[in-house]
Design a protein that fits this description.
Two copies of one chain form a homodimer. Helix content of chain A is about 45%, strand content about 5%. The first copy, chain A, is mainly α and about 160 residues long. Chain A folds into two domains: about 90 residues, Multidrug-efflux Transporter Regulator, Chain: A, Domain 2, CATH 1.10.1660.10; about 55 residues. In chain A, strands 1-2 form a two-stranded antiparallel ribbon. In chain A, a hairpin with a 5-residue loop joins β1 and β2. The first copy, chain A, is elongated and about 70 Å long. At the A-B interface, α3 and α5 of A face α3 and α5 of B. Chain B binds a DNA duplex (30 and 30 nucleotides) through α2.
Chain lengths: ~160, ~160
DNA sequence: GTCGTAGTTGAAGTTAACTTCAAGTCAAGT
DNA sequence: ACTTGACTTGAAGTTAACTTCAACTACGAC
């Protein structure tokens, strides 16, 4: 009966870094921010469970969609009981992301179309040119924020 | 013959701020960065020519497309002789921007499609999931930069 | 000439998301 | 036991694009 306990099943920082693509410093940062957790060796070094790889994949996906780390943290905090997002969690969350992507794509498309109708015109009127005007998205943007799209102003509260 | 000289044809900072939508502090900042220029009164106050409104519209349009201020500065610096972009300049530059927008839209669309094919799957495999993987755009991003899209990482050197 | 509003400057602050550094400790192969 | 490479921490630095502040000066209507 050779059922080894495999206590060595835990990953070191560099293991996780290599396998996730995140820098070790980012992993430590995420831990400070409460997005990740790890056990420690008697000597104080981090040891990660393999599930962090999935969590990191989740984080990367969310960031790719344009979510801020705060939003990712909120999403993770909103998970029922446990921690690592399950298939169901993922499905629910990603469905919401889809809408976000759709909005971003739509905004960029409007911008491109505006550009098309402007090429050769050169008006660039602050009053009428659809392109240089902070037209539709404008409103939001918190205090101190410039006008708009920067399509990835991920912090844009589109509400 | 009442041809008034209209020396009062110059705009103050707040005039420009109101008409362009940029904060006065942003105008001063742009001037320091060499994107804008103004004459001064004997007392040292700024007085802008109306053409800055067009320049600001240009800047806003460029930023909306995702260009960094450095890139805007470079674009302005690359203009033949004068300063304010002419209709022709605008047409040439904006045609280049269109490509940029197309790329951004394509990247987001790929991401969305990846999401669609992932919803319900929940694999989020770092190796195979198209969504959490730093798949196609990855390469670029300078040192210290995370993996990718943040579709508006405006500083992405897509070269 | 007075007064209140508007403008000036340089320096420092802001936010996000990390990275870099210094100084020192741990893990593990030989 | 030794050595080397990996790891730890807190603090400070980084970048973009501005904003805020403090202390002070100019403009211009009356």
């Amino acid at each position: 009966m050779v059922l080894s306990m495999r206590t060595t099943d835990l990953l070191t920082v560099s293991d996780v870094a290599k396998r996730s693509g995140f820098a070790p410093s980012a992993l430590r940062f995420y831990e400070r921010e409460g997005l990740l957790s790890a056990t420690r060796t008697s000597g104080g070094q981090r040891r990660y469970h393999r599930s962090v790889l999935r969590q990191l994949a989740f984080i990367r996906a969310a960031r790719n969609v344009g979510l801020s780390l705060d939003e990712v943290a909120a999403a993770l905090a909103a998970l029922p009981d446990g921690r690592t997002p399950t298939r169901a969690d993922w499905a629910r969350l990603s469905r919401g992301w889809r809408g976000r992507l759709d909005e971003q794509i739509a905004a960029l498309t409007r911008l491109r179309d505006g550009l098309d109708s402007c090429i050769g015109c050169g008006c660039l009127s602050l009053k009428t040119c659809a392109f240089s005007n902070p037209n539709d998205i404008a409103a939001a943007a918190g205090p101190g924020a410039a006008y708009l799209p920067r399509p990835l102003r991920s912090s844009a509260r589109i509400s």
